[in-house]
Write a structure and sequence with these properties.
With 156 residues, this protein is α+β, with helices and mostly antiparallel strands. The protein contains four helices and five strands; from the N terminus they run βαααββαββ. The chain has a single domain, classed as Alpha-Beta Plaits (2-Layer Sandwich), CATH 3.30.70.640. The two termini are 25 Å apart.
């Protein structure tokens, strides 16, 4: 398979997607922030000093998805039609799932991954005064659909 992000000289380029058909595209990505029980209780009970941890992380994730093209050099600016961030409490932390949608010529996987990553980073930032050794892990693409490459679902 040819690598599309390199030109004839082997240098990086932004792929031309102008000839591609616009299709409905969706991507889901996830991540997790592991923390101790005291820190997790702050989130669950709404006692974090900086405010509502998950509300701020949700807005941060949405904002990050919209600005992915400014952070990742070869990403295209995409007209997102939807972004959602969901959280779940786990025994040792908080899991994050980001869902991104668009109707366009290129996928939204990077936007979903960026949203999940920044939501996790925001959780860390909101709680770092209480615990500096939290761990962000398992940032991964769960699913993507739309476009020529078809439907992908991670099998764990």
């Amino acid at each position: 398979m040819a690598l599309t992000h390199f030109n004839e000289q082997g240098r990086a380029r932004m792929v031309d997607v102008s000839a591609k058909d616009k299709t409905q595209r969706i991507a889901r990505a996830a991540g997790r922030v592991r923390m101790n029980q005291d820190t997790l209780a702050l989130v669950r009970e709404g006692r974090a000093k900086k405010g509502d941890v998950l509300a701020v992380a949700q807005v941060a994730g949405i904002m990050a998805a919209k600005r992915t093209w400014e952070l990742v050099p070869m990403c295209h600016p995409i007209q997102l039609t939807g972004v959602d961030i969901n959280f779940a409490y786990e025994e040792d932390g908080v899991s994050v799932e980001a869902i991104t949608r668009c109707c366009g010529e290129t996928g939204v996987e990077m936007e979903a991954l960026t949203a999940a990553s920044v939501a996790c980073l925001t959780i860390y930032d909101m709680l770092k005064a209480n615990q500096r050794d939290m761990v962000i892990d398992q940032v991964r693409l769960l699913e993507k659909d739309g476009g020529k490459s078809g439907h992908f679902v991670r099998e764990d």
